[in-house]
Amino acid sequence: MIQGILGRKLGMTRLFDDTGAATATTIVEVGPCFVTQVRTVARDGYQGVQLGFEQVRPNKLTKPQRGHLKNGVPALRTLREVPASDVDGVAVGERVDVRMLKPGDRVDVTGVSKGKGFAGVVKRHHFAGGPKTHGQSDRWRAPGSVGAGTTPGRVFKGTRMAGHMGDERVTVQNLQIVQVDPERNLVALRGAIPGPSGGVIMIKKRVGGEL
């Protein structure tokens, strides 16, 4: 059984239940996806399925991409591998859509977070900054000491400093599916998910669970 599907984040809104309580939700356009490759234990050492998402005109793909997407598979912009508990009966070209999800399911959502450019240590790592008095007028948002001057006499790898913030692969776990609209391929997830509106995301079974 395929344990994941691809989609595109559309944005956030509020949904109201029967009691009138509002729930912050993220709307995701899920699928339709097509199986473009099947991984088996005998051939690859593990089992999984490569899915393709978002149909485009064939001239939008490179020649190697068109060669990979054959055997009746349409031209697809995005390819990702998802886990599968059982690949018996899964064929290349098979369609996977939002009907594999249902309200109440718990899922993990993976996406690429928003890029925020170069950021200092206060914004990037939540440092408190330096003292505001005793002559420290220019050290309010500085990192302070990053290492000893003698032994070991160097800065350790991984020391938290200013640098590029965001634009990283992020997974939010155990989100609840609030609503599913099969006619429009839409899913409403409780809470926020990584990335900007329009970003490609992957919905997978939650750790320790099944879809």
Short synopsis of the structure:
By secondary structure, the chain is mainly β. Helix content is 7%, strand content 41%. The chain has 2 domains: 4-114 and 167-205, Beta Barrel (Elongation Factor Tu (Ef-tu), domain 3), CATH 2.40.30; 119-162, no CATH class.
How would you sum up this structure, described in words?
It is a single chain. The mean pLDDT is 89. This protein is globular. The protein has a six-stranded antiparallel β-barrel with strand order 1-2-11-10-7-12. A four-stranded antiparallel beta sheet has the order 5-4-3-6. A two-stranded antiparallel ribbon has the order 8-9. The chain folds into two domains: 4-114 and 167-205, Beta Barrel (Elongation Factor Tu (Ef-tu), domain 3), CATH 2.40.30.10; 119-162, no CATH class. It is 7% helix and 41% strand. It has helices at residues 41-44, 63-68, 121-125; strands at 4-16, 22-30, 33-39, 48-55, 76-83, 95-96, 106-112, 115-119, 163-166, 169-181, 186-190, 200-205. It contains three helices and twelve strands; from the N terminus they run βββαβαββββαββββ. It has 211 residues and is mainly β.
Q: Quickly give the CATH architecture of the largest domain.
A: Beta Barrel
Count every helix, treating DSSP H or I runs of 4 or more residues as helices: 3
User: Which CATH class of the largest domain applies here?
Assistant: Mainly Beta
In which order are the strands of the major sheet placed? 1-2-11-10-7-12
Number of strands: 12
Give the CA-CA distance, first to last residue.
Answer: 9 Å
